[in-house]
């Protein structure tokens, strides 16, 4: 496949994904649900991660186990809304891990817009 065909296909995928998310959002499926289980677990995860990062790793085994437990629960949870799914994407991104290609970067950016994260 020629580079121009690959670039055209990537652009099509980006536009299609953005249009799909926009359609879902306009249909009310992206309404913020800050009280959902996934959103609540993610807030707990962020607080636990921040607390863990302030500790000496040699003295924080219990905190690390709690952080891993919360992360596993978020990963295994079934999203009930577009907002929940966007939260799961932000969790998977882990503050910038999903940056290997334009598609990952666009996906995370769209998730941030849906969730209202900066």
Descriptive overview:
It is a single chain. The protein is mainly α and 118 residues long. 70% of the residues lie in helices and 0% in strands. The protein is built from 5 helices and no strands. α1 (3-26) runs parallel beside α5 and α4 crosses α5 (102-115). The radius of gyration is 17 Å and the shape is globular. The N and C termini lie far apart (37 Å). The mean pLDDT is 80. Keywords: Signal. Residues 1-30 form the signal peptide. This is Twin-arginine translocation signal domain-containing protein.
Query: What are the low-pLDDT stretches, counting only 5+ consecutive residues below 50?
Result: none
Tell me the fraction of residues in β-strands, as a range. Answer: under 5%
Q: How much helix is in the residues?
A: over 70%
How do the SSEs run, as a string of H and E? HHHHH
Compute the average pLDDT.
80
Query: Quick one: how many beta strands?
Result: 0
| Helical/strand content category | mainly alpha
Given the structure, what is the number of helices?
5
Main sheet characteristics: none
State the shape: globular
Signal peptide: 1-30
Protein name: Twin-arginine translocation signal domain-containing protein
InterPro entries: TAT_signal, TAT_signal_bac_arc
Keywords: Signal
């Amino acid at each position: 496949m020629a580079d121009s065909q690959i670039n055209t296909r990537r652009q099509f995928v980006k536009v299609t994904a953005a249009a799909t998310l926009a359609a879902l959002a306009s249909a009310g499926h992206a309404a913020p649900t800050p009280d959902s289980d996934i959103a609540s677990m993610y807030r707990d995860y962020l607080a636990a991660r921040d607390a863990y990062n302030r500790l000496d790793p040699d003295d924080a085994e219990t905190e690390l186990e709690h952080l891993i437990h919360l992360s596993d629960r978020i990963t295994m949870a079934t999203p009930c809304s577009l907002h929940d799914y966007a939260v799961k994407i932000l969790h998977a991104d882990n503050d910038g891990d999903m940056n290997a290609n334009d598609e990952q970067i666009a996906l995370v950016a769209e998730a941030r817009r849906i969730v209202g994260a900066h």
